[in-house]
Amino acid sequence: MIKGVLFDMDGVLLESEEYINKAGVLLFKEKGVEVNPEDFLQFTGMGENKYLGGVAEKYNIPFDVDRDKARAYEIYAELVHGKIKPLPGVMEFIEKCKSKGLKMAVATSADRVKMEINLREINLPETIFDATVNGLEIEKLKPEPDIFLLAAKRIGINPSSCLVVEDAISGVKAAKAAGSKVLALKTTFSEDDLYEAEWIASNLKNTPDAALNW
Question: Has 192 been annotated as catalytic?
Answer without folding.
Answer: no
